[in-house]
Amino acid sequence: MVLPVDPERLRREFPELTDDDLDAYVTVTKRILAAKAGDRPRLTREVLEKGRQKKDDLSARYVAAVDKMQRSTVRRPS
Predict the structure, then answer these.
(1) Model pLDDT, residue 58
(2) What are phi and psi of 68, to 5 degrees?
């Protein structure tokens, strides 16, 4: 399965990502992409909800990885 973004590209763009972060991102992204297209939005919401509530270790690791990627792209006004 081809991921939307190559993990090595993510590693270069976001050097603060750990191997664990990338593993969670790859595992969850593959799981979401393997689902039927109509199920993907629900599955994504469930993963994010479980991760934010720390109900599932993999989901929590995925949310932490996504947060790192989003945090490093936010521009603060000067």
Answers:
(1) 97
(2) -60, -40
**Full-model pTM:** 0.85
What ranges do the domains of the chain cover? 7-71
Phi, psi (deg, nearest 5) at residue 29 = -60, -45
User: Which positions of the chain have pLDDT values less than 50?
Assistant: none
Give the C-alpha separation, 66 to 47, whole Å. 12
Determine the angle formed by the axes of helices 19-34 and 57-71, rounding to 10 degrees.
110
CA 74 to CA 1: how far, in whole Å?
Answer: 29
Cα(61)–Cα(75) distance, integer angstroms: 24
Structure confidence at residue 76 (pLDDT): 55
